[in-house]
Amino acid sequence: MPDTEGHPEAAEMELGKVLAALADPLRRTVVRELATAPDGTARTCASFALPVSKATLTHHFRVLREAGLVRQVNRGNSRMATLRRADLEQRFPGLLALLAAEGSP
After folding, report:
1. How high is the pLDDT of residue 1?
2. Which SMART domains does the annotation name (predicted)?
3. 98's torsion region: left (phi>0), alpha (psi -120 to 50) or beta?
């Protein structure tokens, strides 16, 4: 069962939901940027400068959170997102490396 913030436990992360979340190029960009940043990097949703409305941005991050790709915490009147790197490596070894390689020349 997901915790109170809508984050599934690592064992509850489903491959189908993760792949569905990553099917969108904008969400893949968010995960790739977090995957190539130092471990533990936290960024606000707006810092990714995605070309979408605030409501659409909220939707994208909700999909990422509910799939288990990111953890979000409230910081004042914004939310910080961090990649759930350890959980993803445990459940889906090599997935983050594939995403990081996708953005490489």
Report:
1. 33
2. HTH_ARSR
3. alpha
